[in-house]
């Protein structure tokens, strides 16, 4: 009796050698390239976003009347950009013509180096972001008018050289905290954006090291 | 991809990948490339798996997507996925089972999407699952399967080239 296609399919695959999985060649090389290329793309996009963002903030802050903040942010963002552009050159110098393990290790070393640099920077730029935000609002016309109104009322505020000293205390505390926790905030920030890539990188390195052991 | 991931999450389903890759390739070299690419894609998209379907269904879907994408990429001619394939290059690979060889030869004469449908049907996927995997209306699947089976029968009987 003629067999149905369903029977042919079922019986055919009962043969033990019909479903032997082929050996995976060069898989680690492909995966290494994939991870690093993905990171490069994301890194480049982020740097471009910083550049565009710095101009957007500069213009927007002028429009809404807090130009001091916009100018401050513009310089901070472009300083970050400058440092990271320099770091990125190192990324493109990584030799691709080595085995996947060496390629990944070089990338990992570069990554650690750039994270360390950015972590140090973060301890300065997070407080600066906050300070420029405060200064931006402080020098805005609305706040200045409100402040003048407060000053006209007697015994409302304690001033030294026209600076409301008590108001500066929370600003100093927050700035100090941002400086102290800047590196941790940066770590959190980075893990949000690149966390998945880092996990895959660690996994892949561990995997290759296990195979090499 | 950790070794563990390959061993625990891909290897048990290797049969699925093998059957699909085999249906979309003509040489052992292409087959191995497709198989590898599917494994790589499963590893890459592992984190996108939300558990809304069976893991095996996920593998079917990814395997078919990868094979269809690679097929398009490798094709010199621009063909839509539902067109009949170009005259297939000769496939010298053989299974021990002669009937299975004939069946695969017949399947490879189907259009790319019909191949996907019949592979899923032969893997005993329900019409609903087939529709989900290939992204179509389940109502059409029954009719399509019937038509494909008739065509396969004709090919196997030597009535169709």
UniProtKB/TrEMBL annotation, chain A:
Keyword Membrane recorded: yes
Transmembrane residue ranges: 43-60, 66-83, 121-139, 159-181
Keywords for the protein's UniProt record, in alphabetical order: Membrane, Transmembrane, Transmembrane helix
Protein name: Uncharacterized protein
Organism, as annotated: Labilibaculum manganireducens
UniProtKB/TrEMBL annotation, chain B:
InterPro entries recorded: RNA_pol_sigma-70-like, RNA_pol_sigma-70_dom, RNA_pol_sigma70_r2, RNA_pol_sigma70_r4_t2, RNA_pol_sigma_r2, RNA_pol_sigma_r3/r4-like, WH-like_DNA-bd_sf
Cited Pfam families: Sigma70_r2, Sigma70_r4_2
Top-level taxon of origin: Bacteria
Domain RNA polymerase sigma-70 region, first and last residues per copy: 13-76
Biological processes, Gene Ontology terms: DNA-templated transcription initiation
CDD domains: Sigma70_r4
Keywords assigned: Sigma factor, Transcription, Transcription regulation
Molecular function terms, GO-annotated: DNA binding; sigma factor activity
Boundaries of every RNA polymerase sigma factor 70 region 4 type domain copy: 103-152
Family to which this protein belongs: Belongs to the sigma-70 factor family. ECF subfamily.
Record-linked NCBIfam families: sigma70-ECF
The name this protein goes by in its record: RNA polymerase
Source organism of this protein record: Labilibaculum manganireducens
């Amino acid at each position: 009796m003629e067999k149905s296609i369903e029977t042919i399919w079922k019986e055919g695959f009962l043969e033990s050698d019909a479903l032997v999985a082929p050996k995976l060649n060069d898989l680690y090389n492909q995966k290494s390239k994939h991870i690093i290329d993905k990171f490069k793309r994301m890194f480049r996009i982020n740097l471009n976003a910083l550049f565009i963002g710095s101009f957007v903030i500069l213009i927007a802050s002028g429009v809404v009347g807090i130009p001091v903040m916009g100018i401050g942010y513009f310089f901070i963002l472009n300083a970050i950009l400058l440092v990271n552009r320099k770091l990125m050159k190192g990324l493109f110098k990584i030799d691709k013509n080595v085995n996947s393990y060496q390629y990944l290790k070089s990338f990992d070393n570069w990554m650690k180096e750039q994270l360390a640099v950015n972590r140090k920077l973060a301890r300065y730029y997070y407080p600066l972001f906050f300070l420029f935000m405060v200064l931006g609002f402080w020098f805005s016309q609305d706040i200045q008018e409100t402040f003048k109104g407060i000053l006209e009322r007697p015994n409302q505020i304690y001033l030294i050289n026209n600076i409301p000293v008590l108001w500066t205390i929370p600003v100093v505390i927050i700035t100090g905290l941002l400086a102290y926790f800047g590196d941790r905030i940066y770590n959190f920030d980075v893990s949000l954006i690149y966390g998945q890539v880092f996990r895959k990188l660690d996994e892949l390195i561990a995997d290759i090291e296990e195979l090499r052991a | 991809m950790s070794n563990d991931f390959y061993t625990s999450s891909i290897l048990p389903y290797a049969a699925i990948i093998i059957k699909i890759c085999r249906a979309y390739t003509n040489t052992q070299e292409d087959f191995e490339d497709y198989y590898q690419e599917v494994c790589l894609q499963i590893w890459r998209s592992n984190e996108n798996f939300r558990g809304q379907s069976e893991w095996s269904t996920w593998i079917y879907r990814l395997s078919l997507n990868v094979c269809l994408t690679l097929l398009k990429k490798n094709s010199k001619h621009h063909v839509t996925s539902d067109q009949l394939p170009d005259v297939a290059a000769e496939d010298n690979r053989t299974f021990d089972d002669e009937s299975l060889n004939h069946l695969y030869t017949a399947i490879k004469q189907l259009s790319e999407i019909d191949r996907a449908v019949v592979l899923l049907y032969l893997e005993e996927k329900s019409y609903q699952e087939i529709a989900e995997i290939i992204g179509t209306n389940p109502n059409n699947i029954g009719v399509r399967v019937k038509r494909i089976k008739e065509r396969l029968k004709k090919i196997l009987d030597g009535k169709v080239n």
